Amino acid sequence: MLAVHQFVRRFSTSQSVLSKLRIAIIGQSTFASGVYKLLRQDGHKVVGVFTVPDQGNREDPLASVAKEDNIKVFKFQKWRQKGKVLPDVLDHYKSVDANLNVLPFCTQFIPMDVINYPENQSICYHPSLLPCHRGMSSINWTLIHGDKKSGFTIFWADDGLDTGPILLQKECEVYPDDTVDSLYNRFLYPEGMKAMAEAVNMVANGTAPRIPQSEEGATYESALTKKELSEIKFDQLNAEQLHNFIRGMDKVPGAWTYLNGQPVKVYGSQIWSAPVPSGQEVTIEGMKQPAIVHKEGLVLFGSDWKPINVQRLMFEDGKMINAAKYGQSEDETQEIELTQEELKLADSVKNIWTGILNLEVNDETDFFKSGAGSMDVARLIEELKEKCNVQLENEDVYLSTIFKEFIKTVVLNSRGISSGPLLHFDPVKIKANNLDLEFPRQLFINNQFVDSTNDKKLKSIDPSSEELLCEVESASRQDVHKAVIAAKVAFEGEWSKVNARDRGHLMYRLADLMDEHKEQLATLESLDSGAVYTLALKTHVGMSIDTWRYFGGWCDKIQGSTIPINHARPNRNLTFTKKEPIGVCGIVTPWNYPLMMVSWKMAACIAAGNTVVLKPAQVSPLSALKLAELSVYAGFPPGVINILPGTGSVCGQAIADHPDIRKLGFTGSTLIGQQIMKSCASSNLKRVSLELGGKSPLIIFSDCDIDRAVRQGMGGVFFNKGENCIAAGRLFIEESIHDEFVKRVVEEIKKMVIGHPLDRSTAHGPQNHKAHLDKLIEYCDIGVKEGATLVCGGKRVKRQGFFFEPTVFTDVQDDMYIAKEESFGPVMIISKFKESEIDDVIKRANNTEFGLASGIFTRDLSKAMYISDRIDAGTCFINCYNKTDVAAPFGGFKQSGFGKDLGEAALNEYLRIKCVTVEY
Question: Active-site residue numbers?
Answer without folding.
Answer: 126, 691, 725
